[in-house]
């Protein structure tokens, strides 16, 4: 099931959402270049979220090693950068498709600056939760999954019954259909299982099925809670 668009009129152009999609695409092209030169593994290792490294440095810093704070700060920057990296074609295509369909409407509700802050904060907070969930995990975690889950959560709280224009691939025939937005909550989680399709040749483990990887679903709760707060105000 492929979402195409919704039927909600937006007054503003989704400038921030378009820029987020563009940055993700540009960095993925950069990853493809690094894959050809054999530098991709090192790049991912430096800029992905590796819970074991961050938690180890934080523990040393808290127990009296001032120099460890430098490592904590440097490694914590990966919480932001890793949001714009992807490990496979299926992961980036799935993420950006959901971001395009649902993000433009959420940006119209929040406004550009608030939407950007919401997107980045949700992704970073989800990364922190992943580290807390499995502090000894030595696998690299990358992708905008947590941030996009928050966008989906905010959208579904506001428009749970909105019809999403979708395409149902049936062999070589594509049938246009309209599906309630709530369906894509379940479909988003289901498609996480297929994000290994078209994986880049990265000589390290990334996004392995683990509790920490699935914790990015917390992003959905963040988005839903934030939209609830705005509605009450």
UniProtKB/TrEMBL annotation:
Protein keywords: Hydrolase, Membrane, Protease, Transmembrane, Transmembrane helix
Domain Peptidase S54 rhomboid: 78-231
Segments traversing the membrane: 15-32, 83-103, 115-133, 139-157, 164-190, 210-230
Pfam families, per database record: Rhomboid
Recorded GO MF terms: peptidase activity
Domain of life where this protein originates: Bacteria
Keyword Membrane annotated: yes
Subcellular location: Membrane
GO annotation (BP), single: proteolysis
Membrane topology listed for this record: Multi-pass membrane protein
PANTHER family: PRESENILIN-ASSOCIATED RHOMBOID-LIKE PROTEIN, MITOCHONDRIAL (PTHR43731:SF14), RHOMBOID PROTEASE (PTHR43731)
Similarity comment: Belongs to the peptidase S54 family.
Protein known as: Rhomboid family intramembrane serine protease
